[in-house]
Design a protein that fits this description.
Layout lengths: L1 H11 L18 H14 L4 H17 L6 H10 L3 H20 L1
Helix pairs in contact: 1-4, 4-5
Length: 105
């Protein structure tokens, strides 16, 4: 499963990818421990620390706090390659914006 996640991140590029966890579930390790383990797996898979930081922190921060709107192309790629529920919500919001903007033209 992680190989598929990494392939998807590579396919869309780290500038268009985010990641989320379900580490708060009782059967999972503590959040900090789980994030360190996942980051180590990403390093082992060939991602750089800069790429990991972008996917885990920079891009989600931009999406949540900077008012960054996804381009239609990015929304389509994300819809095709993403797996997390949070990402799906962002896409639906972006798709609604894209539709309403397209209707205005």
């Amino acid at each position: 499963m992680l190989k598929e996640v990494y392939a998807n991140i590579r396919a869309v590029g780290v500038e268009r990818a985010t990641q989320a966890t379900d580490l708060r579930q009782k059967t999972n390790p503590p959040v900090a421990e789980g994030c360190v383990a996942f980051s180590q797996r990403q390093l082992d898979a060939g991602f750089t620390t800069v790429e990991i930081s972008r996917v885990a922190a920079t891009i989600p921060h931009r999406l949540l706090y900077s008012g960054l709107h996804l381009s239609e192309e990015a929304a389509c790629l994300r819809a095709r390659y993403s797996t997390a529920t949070v990402r799906e919500r962002i896409l639906r919001s972006s798709a609604n914006r894209c539709s309403s903007e397209h209707d205005k033209e």
